[in-house]
Amino acid sequence: MRLLAGTLVLILSAGPAVAAPPPEDEVERVVTRHVKALLPDDGIGGAAVALRLEGRTLFFNYRWADAAAERPVTTDTLFNLGSLRKVFEATLLALAVQSGRIALDDRVADCLPELRPDRDISRITIGQLATHTSGLLLPQDHPPWPNWGHTLPSFIDAMNGWTADIDHQPGEQHIYTHAGYVLLALALEHRLGQPIDELLGDAILGPLRMDSTLLPLRDDSDRGQLSPEQRLRSVQGYSVDGKPIGEPGDQQGYYHWPGTSQMYSSTRDLAVFLAANMDELAIEPALADAMALAQRGVYAMSPHNTQALAWEISHGDEPTIIEKYGGLNNAGAYLGLMPSRRLGIVILNNRGNQYPNEAGRRILLELSGYSAEHD
């Protein structure tokens, strides 16, 4: 009896059985097999991967940051993050919510006096902007992509002129909108009293020592205010058919005022952000709590997909994945977390329409031990 009791205690204290992580050479084979889908046979473009596995980070780099110059991708190469910027803004919002400086139920018109209280825009809340449930939609949010953009005054005019028709009611549907996050950034700047780049630097990038993550201020060039060293580290972006688009450090977008630049980062920096979001770094409790709040599901998009603050949550028969994808015509970016398996991944690539989110999910699922045979 004593031996049996002791055995039972040992089993209970050990917790559920967890498969041993695969060896590094097997991990590399898995990653490389799936990343191949992002690397067309013409050899133009490349990809960088950071994988978080059982508390350690592994880096994998493929092909060219600049094919013509034969400059290879490295862990410190700077890629355009596209819509991954939104998870940083969502974390900043969550910090402000926790400190009581803003609330998710606050009306955006109460944060920005330029917005008219007698127009439909006054019905939209901060939380709805952060979860893509505002109903807001502009021509710049979807194909066919227009050939014109906005200055700040024209954007405010567009917001005041926006109409919430039957298919675009605040809080009643999920419609992915870049304009909503542009408006959210303006609201955060006004409420918190600093430009968005300074807010992100002070609250997130500085504390995490993400020195290679930047929001270059726009200037008269197509690259913004990048230093010579940053330009040398930036990728050349390519179209889906391998044609160069812009120069290294290329800035795109439809919004033309300070604070609307696209974010650049490296897998080395994003591996830190990934580990922090997985609660595997010793960081300030307020920042850790904000990251957890940003990952909390808010709006059910489908039985298996839930929208959080910028993050999307995929759940069902497979292990839950918390993720964000960013895609441009010359770049792609993906952040994925599988908390139950202590797995996370960053994939950055410099060729348009290659969908690193699909490769990232497959890698996470395979390394988690899940397979289609379990269906």
Provide structural commentary.
The protein is of the alpha+beta class and 375 residues long. It has one domain: Beta-lactamase (3-Layer(aba) Sandwich). Helix content is 33%, strand content 17%. The protein contains twelve helices and 13 strands. The protein has a nine-stranded antiparallel beta sheet, with helices on both faces. Strands 4-7 form a two-stranded antiparallel sheet. Strands 5-6 form a two-stranded antiparallel sheet. β5 and β6 form a beta hairpin. α2 runs antiparallel to α12 and α3 packs parallel to α7. The radius of gyration is 22 Å and the shape is globular. The chain starts with a helix and ends in an 8-residue tail after the last helix.
Strand composition percent: 15-25%
Regarding quaternary structure, what we see is single chain
Shape: globular
CATH superfamily: DD-peptidase/beta-lactamase superfamily
The CATH architecture would be 3-Layer(aba) Sandwich
CATH topology: Beta-lactamase
Estimate the helix proportion, in percent.
25-40%
Low-confidence stretches: 1-18, 371-375
Question: What's a concise summary of this model?
Answer:
This protein has twelve helices and 13 strands. The protein is of the alpha+beta class.
In terms of topology, how is this protein built?
Layout: H1 2-14, H2 24-35, E1 46-53, E2 56-66, E3 71-72, E4 79-80, H3 85-98, H4 108-111, H5 126-130, H6 152-161, H7 178-192, H8 196-205, H9 228-233, E5 237-238, E6 244-245, E7 264-265, H10 267-277, H11 285-294, E8 299-302, E9 305-307, E10 312-314, E11 321-328, E12 331-338, E13 343-349, H12 356-367
Antiparallel strand pairs: 1-2, 1-13, 2-3, 4-7, 5-6, 8-9, 9-10, 10-11, 11-12, 12-13
Helix pairs in contact: 2-12, 3-7, 3-8, 3-11
